[in-house]
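User: Quick sanity check before I run a bigger batch. Here is a single chain. Can you write out its predicted 3D structure?
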Amino acid sequence: MKISSVSWGALALALAAGNAAFAQSVDNENEDSATAVDEVVVTGMLSQFGVTKSNTPILETARSVSVETEEMFRAKGALTLDDALTYTAGVSGDTYGFATRGDFATVRGLDVPEYRDNIQVLFGFYNNTRSDIYMLEQVEVLKGPASVLYGRGSPGGIVNVVSKIANPEPRRELVVEYGSYDRFQVGADINGPLFGDNSGLSGRVVALYRDSDTQIDYVNDDSMVISPSLTWQPAPSTRFTVLAEFQESESDTAGQFLPLTGTYLESASGEEIEPSTYLGHPDFNKYDTDSVSLTLMGSHELNEIFSVEGTARYKNGMADYSQRWVSFAGAGVPRIDAAGNGLSTWYAGDASSQQLSADVRLRAQFQTGMIRHELLAGVNAQDVQTDSDVGYYFGEVINVFNPVYGPLSEAVKNLKPVDTPPSTTEDLGVYINDQVSIGNLFLNGGVRFDTVESDNGSATQEDDATSFSVGAIYKFDMGLSPYLSYAESFEPVLGVDTVTGDNLKPQEGRQYEAGLKYQPPGTRTYITAAYFDIEQSNLSNPAALPTAPSQQEGVAKITGFELEALTTLGDWYLEGNFSALDTEDPNGVPLSSIPETQASAWAMYQPEAGPLANFRAGFGLRYAGENESNGINPFTGERVQIVNDSYTVADAMIGYRAVGWDFTVNARNLADKEYFATCLARGDCFPGEGRTVVARLAKRF
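Assistant: Done. Predicted structure follows.
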């Protein structure tokens, strides 16, 4: 893997910077203590290693930001990162239903990158392990373009997960879980000061082991993760952390690409394909991944004005992926005959990724007259190499209504991935952002300059991009905060425009957003409403432009409304979320698999006193409206439209705490409703997550 001199320099600077107080914090200088506590309880907290790279309170941020703490996503029974996002407005956490290969959330109708502790953690497809939520203390979503802070990315936003790292707060926890599909998991979280409270040194080890079947026949979900970290804080103004993680998973693919016939469409015989149907082969299919990563985080206050902070990561991941499925024939073309027989496609893949990244920032907090500044200037360098070797074999028939898994043929046994050159990407970004406050008015503006060098083994390309963002929010004394913002994004596209002869231009995105944030003084209530308008340009040409002047005349448009409301009333915690999207791809049809409307509600009862003081219970509902997928039949040229039904599922939790013990039982999809998260015009369906019941016993020492 080639690392540029710029990348090495940025990494060295990050190591010198060290780690900031990574435990979540908010800037409470202008807030009284009661208000600050209320804000923390209701909205979660951001730090300089959070999704906004700032500890500015969410109520002073002119953007939509959602936070799901460990306590809340655990109470809701989340078993994956996708699950943890299903109670967030504007986010679809189960876009492709129950999945084992990864997490596939969409934000505001678009795929988004996943970051961990400020640095992108996944690249390419199916070449790495997925984040396990037991290793996380918080999940954050920044909605809308984020290129000013993060460089290349989606106009939908980003998902940032926050790792559990060493800190001085003592914690010794052992957790055992058992549930549906013989799911067995044991986890441990040991944290606290080393060599006495005055040493400034803290250590933490978070580990888990899981042995589990799943709702899909023959598909398991086994994993082992260990994440040790060490934090040294020699003074209140200086902190360094080193975090390592080793993960190994053995699994298979939950997504079986079930044919439309027998699921969405009625078969000739009236038979249906069961959602648990396995169309792979137990002796061939696998999805085994492993990864190792080392992350360094640090901060140091130089004086009352200036501080420096940085994050750096090295990560190496690999995936061994083999799967059989029923061959695709094109949109609107049946994949099986009247008896349910279809030709098999056998896929063998061997993929890997290597990453070296650093993000170093200089922060200045100062006042000029009545104007208070928080100025952030940063350098972000990244070098990533991905390698994906694949091989295919087409042959042998499988019956989708009664699959039989016989001996593997010699052709399948001899199937090997075909070696292809790796792809490398080098990113260098320089950015500056200023958060200005004048009384109750908060203004934010930023600009970033990026250079991206891409090489796929057969072609190289260099792209330059400049991204802007600006926002304003005003906090009225009554607790109402209206805001406006504008933000941009870009994403390089490697290739040559065959019409112009030039390199393809980066896809570009821009968003206008207007909203209201409301927190009545002295309450633990937080309400936010947002309207946004996103445009994504430089996409592939729509079918209506056969003689366009370039290959990138396509434009996608998304408008939407989101509402989030959280409150604590006595012994009750209440939460409600709603979003509505109007999407249009370059061909004028809705974006594939994106619900037009979504809603969720969660209520939890946890009395603080009385005979039920150790008892708690929660109940939630999740609704997703219709979504559709469109395609063109390759033989007739006719449009194929698949409209997926809406669905509503319920979740529940009951728990009891005793001294040092915590017992809970969670049920997701309580009524075991069968539904398809999406069916695609290309010819396949993805079942949603069935009922899972998991009992959890935790012992705190």
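The chain is about 5% helix and 55% strand.

User: Great, the batch can go ahead then.
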